[in-house]
Amino acid sequence: MHRSLLVHVYGWLLLLPAAVLLIAFTHYPAIASLAQSFFSPKSALYPSQFVGLDNYATMAADPVFWKVLKNNVWFAVGTVPASIVIAITMALWVNGRIPGRGLVRMAYFTPTILPMIAVANIWLFFYSPDIGLIDQVLSNFGIRGHNWLGRPETVMGCLIVMTIWKEAGFFMIFYLAGLQAISPEFEEAATLEGAGRWHYFRRVVFPLLMPTTLFVLINAMINSFKLVDQLFILTKGGPDNASSLLLYYIYQVAFSFLDESYAATLTVVLLAILAVLAIGQYFLLEKHIHYQ
To answer: Which helix (H) or strand (E) holds 68?
Structure first.
């Protein structure tokens, strides 16, 4: 009994540092944000007061909130599927016997290790009107310069392209690990049966990659709602909130408008959206997951 107790104590002590960090930086802020969302913002003259669901009513009537939420949905739709498809394609390519395979893998993964601020500055060089690389190339074909980040119809597409370039290499690593875990006997058997490459991928490889796809899909969806670093460098949410995303709007409300209670309300909604998306994806895809 004494030895068993020591083993349990030892195990809990090993978990303690991670548990403390998880509670301090994840669970407590979420609970504190939920509590703050039911109170009015405090100031030097007026203390915070309980207002119930008033902040949520304000949010429901806030046109900027609905606009940035719509932006975020389109941002997710544009980045998540494309990042996954490109990641699978790159993983299949670098998993084969190609010349300089190690260098190609490193080249695909390099954008992932760059800070988003650095990536934003790199792509700012591409998107700058007239003097940017894109406009310089287009000018050789007689096409006039375009304000890519200053036009509502193009700014979101520019952010989506940049994010895909940054994220696809990260997801490629998971798919590459998944491909390397698949026994080569499956490919040999498919070849003996006369299956083509596409049929083998669709019927064998992709089903075996479904656990990886579920993990990547959840992470890609979460990332699409929390990647806002690029907005500080490229657009500041403009023009006219055309590129503003939900997390960036939370930052503006909290630190520019100094409305902590409304920012907490928006944070609660963001956490609820992410939780619903993650849980929904898990239960919808769980029955389609095949384990080797």
So the answer is: helix 63-95
Provide mean pLDDT across the span 29-45.
87
Lowest-confidence region among 113-127, 185-199, 248-262, 276-290? 276-290
Q: CB 245: neighbour CB atoms within 10 A?
A: 25
CATH of domain 63-286: 1.10.3720.10
Per-chain mean pLDDT for the chain: 88
Task: Say if residue 111's pLDDT is above 60.
Answer: yes
* φ, ψ for residue 39, nearest 5 deg: -125, 160
Distance of CA 180 to the CA centre of its chain: 25
pLDDT above 90 covers a percentage of the chain that reads 42
| Residue entry with tokens 């209670």 | 261
Q: How far, in Å, CA of 2 to CA of 194, rounded?
A: 63
The residue that leads in pLDDT, 288 or 128, is 128
Take residue 58 and report the two structure tokens written for it. 């304000």
Q: How long, in residues, is the chain?
A: 292
| Three-class SS state of 213 | helix
pTM over 0.85? The answer is yes
- Is residue 219 within 8 A of residue 87, CB to CB? The reply is no
> Rounded to the nearest 10 degrees, how much is the dihedral formed by the CA atoms of 64, 69, 71, 72?
140
The backbone region for 146, taken as left when phi is positive above 0, alpha when psi lies in -120 to 50, beta otherwise, is: beta
